[in-house]
Amino acid sequence: MNIILDKELISTVMKGKRLRLVYNPYAGRRKLTRQLDTVIRIFQESGYEVCVHRACSPEDMEQVASQSNDVDRFVIAGGDGSIHQAVNGLLQIPEDQRPVLGILPVGTANDLAFALRLPKSIPEACKVIAKGNIFRMDTGQVNDRYFVNVASAGLLTDVSQKVDTRVKNTLGQLAYFLKGIETLPLFRPFHVEFEKDGQQHSEEVVLFLAVNGHSVGGLRQLVPRASLTDGKLDILIVLASGWPETIRLLLNVLRKEKVESEKIMEFQTTELTVYTDRVIKSDLDGECGPESAWKVKTGPKISVLC
Q1: Within this chain, do residues 286 and 158 fall inside the same structural domain, yes or no?
Q2: pTM for this predicted structure
Q3: The domain containing residue 105 runs over which residues?
Q4: Are 152 and 127 in a shared domain?
Q5: For residue 141, how far is the Cα from the chain centroid?
Q6: pLDDT digits (tens, 9 = 90+) for 72-119
Q7: Between 20 and 30 A from 149 (CA), which of 108, 226, 243, 302?
């Protein structure tokens, strides 16, 4: 029997370049699953030995990422929630053993991919990963959890957690807005206390954001000065002021219009401890985050291919 050896594959294995691809099979209308063979081919032709993992849950993504010190590249195919799980897993690995993160943006909002200017095309995004340009970016941290785009609490911030995956895949970002309108009648403001520049603040608020990236929930340039490399978080707080004024302020913020109002606080910080009058849930990158109180701070940097 004649055995034909794949010389390219043998060369790949001998080079020792290993890549783990973890994908969310339900992200972005199953966009990745239809192009999976193309993705593997591009990575193999770029000299990588590829192993593929189909994630069965968000927790599964994080666990696989946390055990990926045996590869050079860890590629996550999904949206911002999937990236969030991957980053929280990778940051459990010592930095000198941690693989570089690659992203195939196949989610709904793809906020981090926008900030990194990654191609929307899956094959083109694969080529970016194969090219190997490494970018060192900031992360944020709330208590013991990390985030890449935004930590939030208050009005509309947990919408992405409540949207059914099938509805999200069908309607895209419109699903978020529809669910947000549905939750408005049930919301009530909450009280926060924090210290800034040596001064104590005690405020009634409807929205709290700690922003690391340029895009939040598909809203591009929500905080224009936010940077992935400045080592700071941009804080945006909308104070309670009655529903008509609150809705007007929120609409202006969402439209990225310049808002001159004493009901909006904006500042930069590297660390902020926030206390609330009752237990409030937070949202990190569209995933469930820690309950209050929160110690919000800049986290460690992570290497990303872009």
Answers
A1: yes
A2: 0.86
A3: 7-132
A4: no
A5: 12
A6: 999 999 999 999 999 999 999 999 999 999 999 998 779 999 999 999
A7: 243
Asked if the structure places residue 11 within a domain, the reply is: yes
| One-letter-per-residue 3-state SS of 79-130 | CHHHHHHHHHHHCCCCHHHCCEEEEEECCCCCHHHHHCCCCCCHHHHHHHHH
Q: How far apart are CA 53 and CA 61, in angstroms?
A: 9
Consecutive H or E run containing 153? strand 150-154
What's the pLDDT score for residue 224?
76
Q: At which of 89, 111, 132 does a domain end? A: 132
Residue 175 and residue 96 share a domain: no
Query: CB-based contacts of 281: which residues, under 8 Å, 6+ apart?
Result: 153, 158, 288, 289, 291
Q: Which of 49, 271, 287, 291 is catalytic?
A: 287
Distance between CA atoms of residues 227 and 234, nearest Å: 9
Alpha helices in the chain (DSSP H): 7-15, 36-45, 58-66, 80-90, 111-115, 122-131, 159-162, 165-171, 174-183, 243-254
**Do 298 and 139 contact (CB within 8 A), yes or no?**
yes
Residue numbers of the chain with a pLDDT score lower than 70: 1-16, 28, 156-185, 217-221, 250-260
Phi/psi at 101 (nearest 5 deg)? -85, 130
DSSP-derived letter for residue 12 is: H
Q: Say if residue 149 is in the same domain as residue 295.
A: yes
What CATH number did the domain enclosing 178 receive? 2.60.200.40
- Domain boundary pick from 76, 100, 132: 132
- End-to-end alpha-carbon separation of the chain, Å? 46
CA distance 9 to 49: 8
